[in-house]
């Protein structure tokens, strides 16, 4: 059974490469709130929908003081193509050994079409300015998740453009 994080837990520290090879560390984002979302694979239909929802809400999240980070096991080159194809403007981080995904409880047994498989569990974490988990959501749906997250955080709805 995968260990899951809960509100009040210290967020596991990480440093991962982004699509350009720059190292992004959670510690460098202290003092602001961070949304970390974990997704199975770049350029797949559900992950594309979710990433585009974050992209479309990025300005309003930034206005509320949030930094958004996406983490998947994809290598930076695949993430660069995903960023380019979808016009993504927030950091996509590469975790091919799944160490960070595992530390966050976002890698392990999950149900897929009624069968138990091992893989990335679509999850979202809100981390406060001190590095503590505010919100941990596991097994989230790709479609509609960002709107639900906004409601859960008490943020106003963003009009669809």
From TrEMBL:
SUPFAM superfamilies: Thioredoxin-like. Its EC number is 1.11.1.24. InterPro entries: AhpC/TSA, Peroxiredoxin_AhpC-typ, Peroxiredoxin_BCP/PrxQ, Thioredoxin-like_sf, Thioredoxin_domain. It comes from the Bacteria. Residues 5-158 form the Thioredoxin domain. It catalyses: a hydroperoxide + [thioredoxin]-dithiol = an alcohol + [thioredoxin]-disulfide + H2O. Keywords: Antioxidant, Disulfide bond, Oxidoreductase, Peroxidase, Redox-active center. It holds the Pfam family AhpC-TSA. GO terms for molecular function: thioredoxin-dependent peroxiredoxin activity. Monomer. Belongs to the peroxiredoxin family. BCP/PrxQ subfamily. Thiol-specific peroxidase that catalyzes the reduction of hydrogen peroxide and organic hydroperoxides to water and alcohols, respectively. Plays a role in cell protection against oxidative stress by detoxifying peroxides and as sensor of hydrogen peroxide-mediated signaling events. This is thioredoxin-dependent peroxiredoxin. It comes from Jatrophihabitans lederbergiae.
